[in-house]
Amino acid sequence: MTDPSNPKDALAAIQTARAGVPGEMRYPPTYDIAYGLICGLLVAGQGLPMPWSMIALVIALAGLALIVHWWKKHMGWWVSGYSPKRARWVAIGLVAVFLALMGVSIWGKYAGIVWMPLATGAAGFVAAILGGRLWMHVWKRELSEAQG
After folding, report:
1. Rounded CA gap, 126 and 98, in Å?
2. What is the number of other CB atoms lying within 10 angstroms of the CB of residue 138?
3. Which of 41-67 are b and which e, b meaning 16 or more Cβ less than 10 Å from the residue's Cβ?
4. Between the CA atoms of 106, 110, 111 and 113, what dihedral angle is there, to the nearest 10 degrees?
5. What is the number of other CB atoms lying within 10 angstroms of the CB of residue 79?
6. What is the enclosing helix (H) or strand (E) of 122?
7. 5-34 burial, b if ≥16 CB within 10 A, otherwise e?
């Protein structure tokens, strides 16, 4: 933007910047796998006995922090999952799925079902990948509609 006093130039600069934010969004599938593994560990860890459940929680939370750092470093930006209006509902739905899976994992621990953390962790892995891709699709569509 060369002249901040010209509203047309300012608007054009904003639209150009907004159009360039998501770009092609070609992030590697390894990101999805890492995110899925982290979320699967977060879910499965709830069904593990102590101290393993606490260790899994710490590793998963550290993994989430590292993956956000990786994204910012490689993509140059980060968007909270809860900030875009329509995409927010995808994130809330994903949290609901994770909470339900965690509840089943905890129930399995107290019911003595030793394989339950594996099942809920696998479901959390798949839900994270599908939910992450769905969130990105909804967010990109929302962003493109806001431009037009």
Report:
1. 11
2. 18
3. bbbbbbbbeeeebeebeeebeebeeee
4. 60
5. 16
6. helix 116-147
7. eeeeeeeeeeeeeeeeeeeeeeeeeebbeb
| List of residues 6+ apart from 102 with CB closer than 8 A | 42, 43, 46, 120
pLDDT the model gives residue 79: 77
| Cα 9–chain centre separation | 35
CB 31 within 8 A of CB 64: no
Average predicted confidence (pLDDT) for the chain: 86
Q: What is the pTM of this model?
A: 0.79
Please compute the mean of the pLDDT values over residues 29-48 and round it to a whole number: 95
Q: Name the pLDDT band for 6 (thresholds 50, 70, 90).
A: confident
Question: Does residue 137 surpass a pLDDT of 90?
Answer: no
**CA separation (Å) from 38 to 9, 42, 45, 70, 120?**
44, 6, 10, 14, 13
